[in-house]
TrEMBL record:
Protein name (Swiss-Prot/TrEMBL): Methylosome subunit pICln
PANTHER family: CHLORIDE CONDUCTANCE REGULATORY PROTEIN ICLN, METHYLOSOME SUBUNIT PICLN
Gene Ontology terms describing biological process: cell volume homeostasis; chloride transport; mRNA cis splicing, via spliceosome; spliceosomal snRNP assembly
The protein's role, per its UniProt record: Involved in both the assembly of spliceosomal snRNPs and the methylation of Sm proteins. Chaperone that regulates the assembly of spliceosomal U1, U2, U4 and U5 small nuclear ribonucleoproteins (snRNPs), the building blocks of the spliceosome, and thereby plays an important role in the splicing of cellular pre-mRNAs. Most spliceosomal snRNPs contain a common set of Sm proteins SNRPB, SNRPD1, SNRPD2, SNRPD3, SNRPE, SNRPF and SNRPG that assemble in a heptameric protein ring on the Sm site of the small nuclear RNA to form the core snRNP (Sm core).
Superkingdom of this protein's organism: Eukaryota
Organism: Spheniscus mendiculus (Galapagos penguin)
Length: 242
């Protein structure tokens, strides 16, 4: 009851169990939940106390799992599992607050995090527990990872499917990213446009009668030399016709 209300009675998983570790203590936020059996199944990670109540964790909610052998951090070697979720057990008043935890929790942006430790009586099983977790976690790729920097390589990543899934959401690049996405041809066009823009700006200065040394030189190197003969030629032809 009360503090332990997230513990539910359910049958042990029967399918896809990659590893089963009896006589394993579960510890949440530094408080023991008792001894039970840890089931590392393909669908989820479950722990069942010997009395038949326990809890399950979904792999997508597990942000980290590791074998902890640092006896200064915790006195027994164990499988450490961090979960992006809140469990009622932690919110009870008796739960000891780690230093600095309070300020963090009051901040709305902080994701809820729960720390579980699974301490097997047989610590030689830790490697197998860890491997089984890696295998199962791999069956549940995190949808959010597609937006992160882990670019998928090769065939694992179906670009078209990804585009379809994204629907009409446009991709926004920052200016620098946008430049790096331009083709070489696009780059050249951009530079040419920037050049023309600079020239037309300098020609405006000339028209306005503001003749700085720079603008005259730029202007003579640029448009005037190309344009003037052509324009003159057209006028001559026009006069001849009449």
């Amino acid at each position: 009851g009360g503090a332990m209300s997230f513990l539910k009675r359910f049958p042990p998983p029967a399918e896809g169990v990659r590893h089963q570790q009896p006589d394993t203590e579960a510890v949440l936020a530094g408080r023991t939940l008792g001894a039970g059996t840890l089931y590392i199944a393909e669908s989820r990670l479950s722990w069942l106390e010997n009395s038949g109540v326990g809890f399950s964790l979904d792999y997508p909610s597990i942000s980290l799992h590791a074998v902890s052998r640092d006896l200064n951090a915790y006195p027994w070697e164990h499988l450490y599992v961090m979960v992006n979720a809140k469990f009622e057990e932690e919110e009870t008043k008796e739960a000891p607050m780690a230093e600095g935890e309070e300020e963090e929790d009051s901040d709305d942006d902080v994701e809820p995090i729960a720390e579980f430790r699974f301490v097997p009586s047989d610590k030689s099983a830790l490697e197998a527990m860890f491997s089984a977790m890696c295998e199962c976690q791999a069956l549940h790729p995190d949808p959010d990872d597609e937006d992160s920097d882990n670019d998928y390589e090769g065939e694992e990543y179906d670009v078209e499917a990804h585009e379809l899934e994204q629907g009409d959401i446009p991709t926004f690049y920052t200016y620098e990213e946008g430049l790096s996405h331009l083709t070489a041809e696009g780059q050249a066009t951009l530079e040419r446009l920037e050049g023309m823009l600079a020239q037309s700006v300098s020609s405006q200065y000339n028209m306005a009668g503001v003749r700085t040394e720079d603008s005259i030189r730029e202007f003579e190197d640029g448009m005037e030399v190309d344009v003037a003969p052509v324009v003159a030629g057209q006028f001559e032809d026009a006069e001849v016709d009449h």
